[in-house]
Amino acid sequence: MRNDRAMMGDEMTDHEGPCYELVADCRLRAATDLFAHTWDPVVLAALRTGPRRRRELRATIGGISDKVLTDTLHRLLSSGLVDRHAHAEAPPRVEYSLTSLGQSLVEGPMMALGRWAIEHSDELLEAQENAARRPSDSAAPPSETQRAG
Q: Fewer CB within 10 A of the terminal residue: the chain, N end or C end?
């Protein structure tokens, strides 16, 4: 039986159509990889209000090294989420801004995730605190021999 929201072997969207042969190659994975690097969504969120220079980005974000910011900007540029504009003036000025693709990511999934985080943050933190208090061996699901036993 197949419903409108297909999962695993197919796309995890409301659209019909197969994913690649392996679930690991799915377009969903390509999209979730955008959040694999801690600073990527932070930089995207910092650019939400408009173009910024590097030093403005660092000041807005706080706690990010210059190297990490450079790596993050390169990743976001190569993903088509951020644009780099070098102004022809002295001294040189470079600004970074969201592309329309980046804007759609920030205003769509990232805002939805933010709403979810606000709505469920207490539950999430409580579950994490409870897990941290448990002995590490009890956090793992019981093995077949333990269940049979």
A: N
Opening angle at CA 132, ends 115 and 42, nearest 5: 35
76-107, pLDDT tens digit by residue?
Answer: 999 999 999 999 888 889 999 999 999 999 99
How many whole angstroms separate alpha carbon 146 and alpha carbon 4? 39
Q: Say if residues 106 and 98 touch (Cβ distance below 8 Å).
A: yes
This model's pTM is above 0.85: no
**Separation of alpha carbons 144 and 149, rounded Å:** 8
Please name the helix (run of DSSP H) or strand (run of DSSP E) that holds residue 100, with its range, or none.
helix 100-105
Q: Tell me the β-bridge partners of 18.
A: 10
Structure-block tokens of residue 75: 């990743």
Tokens 């979810």 belong to 116
Separation CA 97–CA 48 (nearest Å): 8
Of 36, 48, 134, 42, nearest to 98 by C-alpha is: 48
